[in-house]
Design brief:
The structure holds two protein chains of two kinds. Chain A is α+β, with helices and mostly antiparallel strands. Chain A has seven helices and 16 strands. A seven-stranded mixed β-sheet of chain A has the order 13-2-8-3-4-5-14, with helices on both faces. In chain A, strands 6-7 form a two-stranded antiparallel sheet. Chain A has a two-stranded antiparallel sheet with strand order 9-12. Chain A starts with a strand and ends in a 7-residue tail after the last helix. By secondary structure, chain B is an alpha+beta fold. Chain B has four helices and seven strands. In chain B, strands 1, 2, 3, 4, 5, 6 and 7 form a seven-stranded mixed β-sheet that branches. The relative contact order of chain B is 0.19. The chains are: A alpha+beta, B alpha+beta. At the A-B interface, strand 1, helix 5 and helix 6 of A face helix 1, strand 3, helix 3, strand 4 and strand 5 of B. Strand 1 of chain A pairs antiparallel with strand 7 of chain B, so a sheet runs across the interface.
């Protein structure tokens, strides 16, 4: 039998957004009550929309370290990943930004980049990250780490390739082995947050976050053809989401994310030097030229050919 | 994963055949149009509450099935079984697609239509033609659908083959009473 298979999602779906992170949106969680707001999807001002390929959508995915009771879209973002999807080729890229990157936050002077979420919410954070990379996300997606864990748990965990063994006390005393490993919900959270025991600290942590995102997307992609999978996932996400987007757009987004080919996802982390702020805090001095080179790459077709 | 899905608790499964039709039929030059697909309701997300279910069943269920079924049938008919063979033109295959979707489908004619086989046959005989529709319906109101398509037909004429087309079409409501196909994940085979 001659068989040919094509997966296809359309440019119409550029209304859509999420991306790999939308994995979070398309997954099912117990529909328990009461429902709390655990994720937010915000459309932000996009100054350079005209320069982007119309098939390309960019979403800034943010992991918030908000404690219970805190407004999670006005705290410090602990994980910053710019996800870009080409809706025609089903390729995607992820650019990680170390949270301690020392940058100019519009209207607030120099500070760690993750402080911009605290100062101005998703809009300002999107603007600040966009200024660094040169591509402003059209959407900002924020989630609490607790939700993140629950989401990964709900899909039965993820499988990833861990390049080297490491551990952390107190997050993961027994550590993670090198090689192909399975991460449950807690493990995925710990793998994404551990920093102190990593050779390259914040940079390695950012790379780990990308690894987890790719693992989630791959799991969603593998399940997308199950009857009702996307529909249930969108519905569940809606019940925990703050957004001004209609269900129809969320549905399109979810399909866009699910159609991304896991083999066509490439990730990079913006590198930088280590410094100390005037207040004595350890900071990352990001290599702006490298960040801009990544931005120039994704502006063309949403993909990364090199990390620079 | 199946367990997690089952635990979702916000979906229901139902089935109906509002547009039920024979699963055999076909198209030959000058013959009557092919019959419609057998359309059934699959998973529905958003109707766990009785009030939402009532809204969906009373106000939307029948319309969703008929409208989604109609959109999918325009593709099946225009691309495969409702065509006057022999032909190399499938001009009506993508009328229910959004413009970008139609543009891309036209560049994948070998997958999304009966091209190039259509030039060497004089008709088709449908063996199976079913569409199962999963619906996203927050509070019972449809906002998106996935149509799972299973089409099998035999070609007649100089070239006789059994062709199977399977996959998913993604749809959203557009103008009142109409759904549009904005994406697809389709496979096609012939032997």
């Amino acid at each position: 039998m001659n068989r040919s298979t094509r997966r296809h999602i359309l440019r119409a779906a550029r209304l859509a957004m999420l991306g790999l992170v939308l994995a979070v949106v398309t997954l099912t969680l117990p529909d328990s009550a009461p429902k709390s707001t655990e994720i937010a999807l915000v459309k932000v001002h996009q100054a350079d929309a005209a320069t982007l390929d119309p098939n390309v959508i960019s979403i800034l995915a943010v992991g918030s370290d908000a404690r219970p009771g805190e407004n999670f879209i006005h705290t410090r973002g602990d994980a910053l990943q710019l996800v870009t999807i080409n809706t025609e080729t089903h390729a995607a890229s992820i650019i990680g930004v170390p949270r301690d990157s020392w940058v100019d936050i519009p209207g607030h002077g120099h500070d760690k980049i993750n402080a911009s979420l605290y100062y101005g919410g998703p809009d300002l954070l999107g603007q600040t990250v966009g200024n660094l990379i040169g591509v402003h996300p059209k959407y900002v997606f924020v989630t609490r780490f607790q939700w993140f864990s629950a989401m990964v748990r709900s899909i039965g965990g993820i499988d990833i390739h861990n390049p080297y063994a490491f551990s952390d006390d107190p997050l993961k005393r027994v550590g993670f082995k090198a090689g192909r490993i399975h991460l449950n919900g807690y493990d995925a959270m710990a793998y994404s947050r551990i920093r102190h025991s990593l050779p390259r600290g914040d940079f390695d942590r950012s790379a780990h976050q990308e690894t987890v995102l790719k693992g989630i997307q791959s799991k969603v992609h593998a399940n997308a053809d199950k009857p009702g999978f996307i529909e249930r996932g969108v519905l569940t996400a809606m019940s925990h989401m703050y957004t001004n987007l209609p269900p129809t757009e969320l549905f399109r987004l979810a399909q866009v994310m699910a159609q991304v080919d896991p083999h066509k996802v490439r990730s990079c982390v913006v590198q930088g030097g280590i410094g100390t702020s005037s207040g004595g805090a350890s900071i990352v001095l990001p290599y702006v030229a490298q960040a801009r080179d990544m931005g120039n790459q994704i502006r063309k077709d949403g993909t990364l050919s090199h990390c620079g | 994963m199946a367990v997690a899905l089952a635990a979702g608790g916000c979906s229901s499964s139902d089935s109906s055949t509002p547009d039920a039709a024979p699963t055999t039929g076909g198209s030959r030059a000058g013959a009557a149009p092919a019959v419609a697909s057998k359309v059934t309701l699959g998973q529905v997300a958003g109707t766990i509450r009785g009030s939402y279910r009532k809204v969906f069943v009373s106000d939307h269920r029948k319309h969703v099935l008929s409208q989604v079924g109609h959109a999918v049938d325009t593709w099946i008919d225009g691309g495969f079984v409702g065509v006057d063979y022999p032909t190399r033109s499938f001009a009506k295959a993508f009328v229910a697609f959004t413009d970008p979707a139609a543009h891309d489908a036209e560049h994948q004619q070998k997958l999304m239509t009966n091209w190039p086989l259509g030039q060497r046959i004089d008709g088709v005989e449908v063996k199976r033609r079913t569409v199962t529709v999963d619906v996203l319906a927050p509070r019972g109101r449809p906002a998106g659908a996935t149509a799972r398509v299973d089409l099998v037909f035999d070609t007649t004429g100089d070239t006789t083959k059994r062709v199977s087309v399977r996959g998913r079409l993604f749809l959203v409501p557009a103008a009142p009473g109409k759904w549009r196909i904005f994406g697809y994940d389709v496979s096609k085979g012939a032997k």
